[in-house]
Design brief:
heterodimer; A: ABC transporter involved in vitamin B12 uptake, BtuC; 73% helix; globular; B: 262 residues; six-stranded mixed sheet; four-stranded antiparallel sheet
């Protein structure tokens, strides 16, 4: 019994203290992974904030953006042009979604909009593969991929670039959408379409803007994840990793997406490295979901979410 | 009042019909609301009152006829554009942002008045901060005016119905509207709450010079506070005039009490 307690509660911390450089390496790995999760979660948060709808298609939007980018690069477009064109495609997609999917559903219950995003999910999945092909592709936009050592800590340049990009984007968006006019307008639209219209918030514009931004976030996420693990169908499934991040941080909170992502990224790396051997490894695969489950029991609105109010 | 009233009616509805498929909810209704007036639109259930209000605020578009605001045609505008012209409204079933505090709800009413750069706003710095504080001060005045200081921080969804109606009115007032449309502002209230609301409506009219069009069922209220009454029945206008005249009108009595079929 004592052995078990020692192995769980004491030994891992001894290991950490014994090799600080390695600990830092693990932490950095966790922060990098966490920022990537935040990036994914951010796409969900933006749309949830502006329409109260969980966008089931966010993962596929990441895949679609990555497929478009790779497709354009394969056809010989220079990186900058390919990125610009992909942005145009994603913004165009936002306009199309507003026109075809959202506008006819104004004032409908949110579950209806959610179902519509499931439809959107299947459409984009099929359309992306039809347009760009279904085989696994390598995405190379010229980000250097090599490792270097800083004070005994090994750092991969691709991961560093991805993390810095994610951090910058996440910070910008958090500032952009937090306080004041825009943030308030977004929350208003999410809460009640009719009332938002009556006080002069142009629903269509807000939706196009938010879906466009979610599209651009999808490009960055697709770019970073694609560069790391290739562009293939499973890219749309990494969105699943965003779910526990959202539950932890709260669905309508940009800072929540960041903090949630970091907690999960760092938590699963630490768990895997220091506690993994005790249970035969693979902690990384379930850590996020178990943590989310615990949060659902204790604090269902997440760390930064709004308390759920229901009048009966 | 400091500013002189402009000539001509604030709102002019001219031969407006609204159809839903084969149902004609509003049938060639004309009415005009003069500057500074309080006008009531009354009528039995299903007479088309709310539909008419929705047409004025841009939620429905008339199938025929035209609507003019301050002399300019605005028949085909969308709700946000109508709001931008200076027409604010409340809803029959209270449309508040339930998750937001009362203060934030009322602040949303100021959205159209706010300007500024996204970047400064994002940083909550300089002019953006000053602007936020200015609008906040205005909102506090409205909160004082409506005597809802005690519930400023309460999420709107938690309030009792009467107070929700009051917050909704506060949000509409925050936009400093030229024309205020109230859809049954006193529905479901007790006598005391109704008296409070009447006083508030009269105060708004006197202090801000706001023109008001309201839908109401309580005839006592209507007779007390309104300058003019417009009566609808089955989508048609059957009477229009000062309360004292309208209450004696035979067509109105028939609509409300039924016609005796001898």
């Amino acid at each position: 019994m004592l052995d078990v307690l020692h192995a769980v509660l004491v030994a891992p911390f001894k290991d950490m203290a014994g090799a600080p450089a390695f600990l830092v390496e693990v932490l950095i790995g966790g922060v990098f992974a966490g920022l990537m999760y935040s990036l994914l979660a951010l796409g969900f948060v933006l749309i949830y904030k502006a329409s109260g709808v969980f966008n089931f298609a966010q993962g596929v939007m990441v895949l679609f953006a990555a497929l478009t980018l790779v497709g354009l690069l394969e056809r010989g477009a220079p990186v900058v042009l390919a990125l610009a064109l992909t942005t145009v495609v994603m913004v165009g997609l936002a306009f199309a979604i507003e026109r075809v999917v959202l506008r006819p559903l104004v004032n409908q219950p949110q579950i209806i909009l959610f179902m519509a995003t499931i439809g959107l999910n299947f459409f984009l999945e099929g359309f992306g593969e039809m347009a760009w092909g279904a085989n696994v592709k390598k995405l190379d936009v010229g980000i250097p991929d090599h490792s270097f050592v800083v004070r005994g800590v090994q750092i991969n340049s691709l991961e560093l670039t991805a993390a810095v990009t994610a951090a910058v984007l996440v910070t910008l968006l958090a500032l952009f959408f937090q306080k004041t006019r825009i943030g308030r307008a977004l929350r208003a639209v999410a809460d009640d379409h009719e009332a938002a219209l009556s006080i002069g918030i142009p629903l269509k514009t807000i939706w196009v803007v938010v879906w466009s931004v979610a599209g651009v976030v999808a490009i960055v996420a697709g770019l970073m994840w694609g560069a790391k693990s290739g562009v293939q169908f499973s890219l749309s499934l990494i969105a699943l990793k965003a779910l526990p991040v959202l539950i932890l941080g709260g669905f309508e909170s940009v800072p929540g997406a960041i903090v949630g992502g970091l907690i999960i990224g760092v938590g699963e790396k630490l768990g895997e490295v220091y506690w993994g051997p005790l249970v035969g490894g693979a902690i990384e695969n379930w850590f996020a979901y178990v943590l989310a489950l615990a949060f659902l029991l204790v604090r269902p609105q997440g760390l930064f979410g709004e308390k759920i109010i229901e009048r009966v | 009042m400091s500013h002189p009233a402009p000539a001509g009616p604030v709102l002019e509805v001219d031969g407006v019909s609204v159809r839903f498929g084969a149902l004609i909810a509003v049938n060639q209704v004309s009415l005009s609301v003069a500057h500074g007036q309080i006008v009531a639109i009354i009528g039995p259930n299903g007479a088309g009152k709310t539909t008419l209000l929705n047409a004025v605020s841009g939620f429905y578009h008339p199938y025929e006829g035209r609507i003019a605001f301050e002399g300019k045609d605005r028949t085909r505008l969308q709700p946000p554009d109508v709001a931008a012209l200076g027409i604010a409204r409340t809803f029959q079933n209270v449309a508040l942002f339930k998750g937001m505090s009362v203060l934030d709800n009322i602040m949303t009413g100021r959205l159209l008045k706010m300007r500024g750069s996204f970047l400064l706003e994002a940083l909550y710095w300089g002019p953006a901060k000053r602007q936020e504080l200015e609008h906040r001060a205005f909102v506090e005045r409205i909160i004082d005016f409506l005597e809802i200081q005690a519930i400023r921080k309460t999420p709107a969804g938690r309030l009792p119905y009467g107070l929700q109606k009051r917050v909704e009115l506060a949000r509409a007032l925050a936009a400093e509207p030229k024309l205020l449309l109230l859809d049954e502002p006193m529905a479901g209230m007790n006598v005391e709450e109704k008296e409070d609301m009447c006083r508030v409506i009269l105060d708004v009219n006197h202090e801000f010079g706001t023109t008001i069009a309201l839908i109401e069922h309580d005839m006592g209220v209507v007779m007390d506070i309104c300058d003019r009454v417009v009566v609808l029945d089955y989508g048609r206008k059957i009477a229009d005039g000062p309360p004292a005249e309208v209450r004696k009108d035979q067509a109105v009595l028939d609509a409300y009490l039924g016609v005796a079929h001898a």
